[in-house]
## 1
Amino acid sequence: MPIQNKTLKLCNCNGTVALDGTTLSKALELGTPIQVDRALCRQEINRFTSALQDGGDVVVACTQEAPLFQELAEAACFTGRMQFVNIREFAGWSAEGKLAQPKVAALLALAGIPEPEPVPAISFKSDGALLIVGPAEAALYWAEQLKEKLDVAVLLTSTRNGTLPVRHDYPVYSGKTIIIKGFIGKFNVTWQHENPIDLELCTRCNACIRACPEGAIGFAYQIDSDKCRDHRACVEACGSIGAIDFERTVKARSGRFDLVLDLSAVPLMWLPHLPEGYLAPGRDPLDQARAALELSSLVGEFEKPRYAEIKTGLCAHSRNQVIGCSRCIDVCSSGAIHPAGNSAEIDPHLCLGCGGCHTVCPTGAVQYAYPRPSDIGLRIRKMLAAFSAAGGKEACILFHDGKTGLELLMRLGQQGKGLPARVIPLEMHDVAATGLDVLLATVAFGASQCVVLHPSSEAESYIEALREAGDHAALQEQIWNLKPADGVLESAVFSLPDEKRRSLEFSLEHLAKHASQKPELIPLFAGAPFGQVILDKAKCTLCLSCVGACPTRALTDTPEMPRLKFIERNCVQCGLCVQTCPEGALSLEARLLLGAEARQNKVLNEAEPFDCIRCGKPFATKQMIESMVGRLAGHSMFAGGEAIKRLKMCADCRIIDMMEGQTCETTIHDL
């Protein structure tokens, strides 16, 4: 619903936020000035409850008291939609608060944007089968605490200072070389059982403890190899139970679990973003207690969005077993992306939605949907339009996440100078999804510049393009020292497509047309997703293997004659053509070519076709046949004129000629 059809409640928070209802109303095209309250959450609460009576959607410019307003709405049986917008910490509480009316208009404009279309969901089911991994003392302690709530099993990595419980309430294993794979509801765990005592068979009768002369067996029922002298008295004492075997050959064990609590000092799953259902609190008792509390809530059925998927036809991962691009695989911080034939594949159960794969994908094969680029583009365009309508200039969009980044901005507003009046914060699910398509579109839509607030907890695999601000004081210094950059002379009005390459093309065309400086060519760093393919004609035989390898149709051929063509705008510099070329005739040059020339289909090489000497049909290039004849002329299989002559024939005529001139049994070498 447009914001014009919603009830807008503004509050200056006891006069601490400068608000101009007339200016804001004009910028938002409301028609009448907006009433500004002073204590909407206290003395003027009746004005809020009165707004609920209309039954329409309500926008409240306050996030601090959102729980109170929601409670009142529930009590009033309010059926409309309620939205909360932060204008206090983000705009009003600033050293430039009196200049922040354009920013307030931009923030309020977001409330008039419809909700994005829902994305498909991924389901999980957890029955509460929990594996606790770690040293005996900690693992057994937490097993005792959780056994009444969850279906517990324990895998001991060390038995020092450990004693097994007096009751056999849950299975206890021991092992080394532990490998954990999977996600909530479907963890596969494998380990090597190294100790001679099998805890699954052990009855804890203590016969082995009494029999061992060295005292190498404690009440964790594992043999200390440093103390053991191989008397084997324990084996005899164990007898028919058969729990002790020093000659065990099958050591591999495995199990399936819904949840894993890893109490190792260093997590066994070494990923920046761990899968849901796997908790690794380390050795700190308080962190362990928090993890145990969280585990109790991870039983039942769950859903999460399918954050991204890959269009295999666009993926430049590989062709003909030649690896080209692996950027999404390298950047994925949750291990959710892996090779699958010629393309990469996303495991939606492991994907946590950071969006880094979409950011680094040069072809746009990775389709990110939380939110979609088109939804982000709409929000940015509406914000900047309202900012400009209220008289704002040189806007800077600050992308942040809804956790660490949001908390940092709140502290900056409450305890520091706040944000400059021209800096507009925009929340993302994860800032790693803020790719080149979004950043260029932001500038094309009229922003002076973009800033990405990158939390220190993010994965190192995608921090190169982002700056880290560890606390609000550091952020304050950086953001207030940021000088406006030159913007476009005219703001773009196009809708941002979900297709990444189209989005980049729209933005680049607009920026090239309306920028204050208009270079025709911009050199780029190696690995950039724009550039040209350079061909050495002396080496090229026009075999056209590069055309078959190109995933974006930047390289094409023509059916009527041997010709290799190239469209620079389509090239993503994946390198598949370079690695596929048998002659080593191709190389890459990263650059951004602006203007119509980048879209032209230019000829890189063409050659005179070679006609079959028997039927006259063109079937190869003259250069290719001459090269082949030159290379094979000295080979024993081509001694004599007939074999060399067949190289100059098409495939059909070659077989006919062999059959007509056959004097002995045809061999595989003839074919």
Note: The chain has six domains: 3-84, 125-302, 306-368, 373-502, 531-606, 609-660.
## 2
Amino acid sequence: MSVELLTVLMFASVIVGILLGFPIAFVLGGLAAIFGYLLFGPGIANIFMLRMFGVLQDNILIAIPLFVYMGVVLEQTGIVGRLFDTMRLLLGRLPGGLAVTTIVSATIFAAGVGVVGASIVAIGLIALPSMLKYHYNKPLATGAICAGGTLGILIPPSILIVIYGPTAGLSVGQLFMAAIGPGLLLSLLYVIYTVVVCAIKPELGPAISREEAAVPLRHKVSLFFTSVAPVAAIIVTVLGTIFFGLATPTEAAGVGAFAALLLALAYRTLNLRTLWRTVHSALRITSMIYLVILGAQFFTSVFTRMGGGRVVRDAFVGLPFEPVVVLIMMLSVVFILGMFIDWLGVIMLAVPLFTPIAAALGFEPIWFAMMVMLVLQTSFLTPPFAYAIFYLKGIAPPEVSTIDIYKGILPFVALQLLALVLLYWQPQIALWLPQFMLHR
């Protein structure tokens, strides 16, 4: 059987397995075992063992449980509630002030959590009842929560970036630097859209009353320094130590996890029950991530040994189109995959194949990584299989329908596409900080 036919057969089997509802980790690992045994015999088990030990000993991937734990502590110890209440007082008088508060809070919280599902659920539980209380338009309210929550895919220290780096052979620190520009650009686009729409149609997102916002300046300053500043300090410390070469991502993740625990202790929201809950949640999330990574590593080892990577690379590079057309085709594949399977599976499947193709076509790998992550974030919001929708629907009150959420996310999907075009038009949005830090 030819390598080309085997390549098609392996990917077709992956798609069938996913559509049948099997977990992506078991689909990839199971197919690797079947094809590996048929092609290479029992000796494939030795390769799997080497791959497994390689994953478990990877210094960069050790950062995953630490970043996950940092995010879980920030999520489950009431810190997000303090953050939202403070931002509500500071921004609530703007048109659509509560939606703007939601987006800004989600931006800050995403930088601390780095896990999309956790961001959407944590922000949604607090922001949605508050916006409904003030008679906000349901699509606008749900769209702001979903869009803001998915910023955890992009804004560092994102778990996706920690996994993307070793998978693509890129520096996690440089990816963190590159993600800041696109992440803040998206957040700014969300805020501008919300303010403009609510200024034109105030009934969509009324500002909070003047009486409620009439809090003494001293109290607002106190709230800022007790709620926003500590979380921002953790994020700046984690990213700053990486950017200035003072610590590796793994060491910085350890600092962040410890700082999150200290902050929870300072707020007096950490007890033995909460500590157990945070450890259990972090272990569950980390185990899921590592299972997918191991399954993908097994699949990749079989796929590359049989020459599948070369087949895919030659097929794309040899297309009779301009490089930009091939880029659009690759990003379209990522987008479609992201609508059906979790981002982790997409990263492990697509990145090892597409990164060398993009480099061969002359695209900067760090910039291409940001394009891929923006597309993944868009697919996370796009119906009909938008994970963000189902995360929010799971915690929304009965009067908020799935149709409301679908309507709400469409303008934000358009803003995602606008950001993608801007990043293609101006690559320095992503590249200026890595280049500046490299030549400082």
Note: The chain has a mean pLDDT of 82.
